[in-house]
Design goal:
Blueprint: E1 8-9, H1 11-22, E2 28-34, E3 38-45, E4 68-77, E5 83-90, H2 97-114, E6 119-125, H3 133-145, H4 151-161, H5 185-196, E7 201-207, E8 212-219, E9 236-246, E10 249-259, H6 265-272, H7 275-284, E11 291-295, H8 303-310
Parallel strand pairs: 1-3, 5-6, 10-11
Antiparallel strand pairs: 2-3, 2-4, 4-5, 7-8, 7-9, 9-10
Length: about 325
């Protein structure tokens, strides 16, 4: 399931789209996310030829390092005499990973904000040339080919439905399966120390500017002190080795907790798509996780809940009683 970013359509964008749907003065509208909060019109271009040929104007709107949407107006109209549009979703390979994720999760917001009834289809691409006239023809031919999909192609299509970007008419593709940022050496060292028992807690974060996994904290804490380590304004990943007793035995259980308090949209998405890869790094170092948790704030990290999940109460077995055999063995009763 894809998650909405919460970013909204500006009044200016809605007005431009509505006016252009009724009139023929604008061929394409370039849209970008501003201040992590709103979808704004960046630039428009006017038609110069037939609409199929005017796709050659689209690459002039695109930057190789910045993701963008383009609403492209055709000369076709619906029953209400409004123009029909293509939604072009452009996410270049060189743009930041977190931007790829935010634009992926905002596409639905854009469609619902302007009304999807006028959108014919969506085209995804990672190069500007994916959206020129030759790219549009290639995309259309692919759509009309109706050939059976391979298992890999089906998987990629499912990823697109989940809100992840897919290359369009060109040969390039861009997928966000989960973010595999490089890991700082102190993170690896701390995981090794956790496994060895030298520490029982470590906190992992993400450096969004340099796009890497970093160590934020490590040490030894009682379980009651662990929530105090959780920041209340940024997500984090936490590993905690809890030594405790259960049924008279000493047990060491490793918890992997993803805490995600209220914080900027980009940061939340960056952490959300990195949690599986952080877990994989721990697994590679031999850290076996016994319980995974996801919480919004430190108050949800409760010993009682953790114990119940690690050691659920055993179901009582019902005792069955055999019926006594009749004296003298089996007897037949005649009526």
């Amino acid at each position: 399931m894809s998650h909405s970013s919460g970013i909204t359509v500006s009044d200016g964008l809605l007005s431009t789209y509505s006016d252009s749907s009724r009139n023929s003065g604008v061929r394409a509208i370039k849209i970008q996310i501003k201040n992590e909060a709103v979808l704004e019109v960046i630039k428009t271009i006017d038609p110069v030829a037939e609409w199929e040929k005017d796709f050659d104007l689209v690459p002039t709107l695109l930057d190789e390092r910045e993701a963008a949407y383009v609403l492209y107006r055709t000369d076709l109209k619906n029953d209400l005499n409004n123009h029909l549009w293509y939604l072009l979703c452009y996410v270049p390979d060189k743009c930041k990973v977190r931007d790829k994720m935010v634009y992926a999760s905002t596409r639905a917001n854009l469609k619902s904000g302007i009304g999807s009834v006028g959108i014919v289809d969506e085209i995804f691409g990672t190069h500007a040339t994916d959206f020129n006239s030759a790219g549009f023809v290639a995309w259309k031919q692919h759509q009309e080919a109706d050939v059976p999909l391979t298992e890999l192609e089906q998987q990629k299509n499912e990823e697109v439905e989940a809100g992840l970007f897919k290359g369009g008419a060109g040969t390039s593709t861009a997928y966000v399966h989960g973010v595999a940022f490089p890991v700082d050496e102190p993170v690896v060292t701390a995981l090794d120390a956790l496994k060895a028992g030298d520490i029982n807690y470590l906190q992992v974060g993400i450096d969004p500017d340099n796009e890497k996994i970093i160590l934020k904290d490590s040490g030894t804490h009682d379980i009651s002190a662990v929530p105090a380590q959780f920041p209340n304004n940024e997500p984090r990943f936490h590993f905690f080795k809890w030594t405790h007793e259960n049924d008279g035995e000493v047990v060491n259980s490793i918890l992997y907790c993803y805490s995600c308090p209220s914080s900027p949209v980009k940061l939340r998405m960056l952490y959300s798509t990195s949690k599986a890869n952080v877990a994989a790094v721990a697994q590679d170092r031999g850290v076996v996780v016994d319980l995974k948790l996801e919480i919004s704030n430190a108050d949800e990290f409760l010993e009682s809940d953790i114990r119940a999940q690690l050691h659920p109460p055993k179901a009582e077995t019902k005792k069955t009683f055999a019926k006594p055999k009749p004296a003298g063995g089996r007897q037949l009763i005649k009526k």
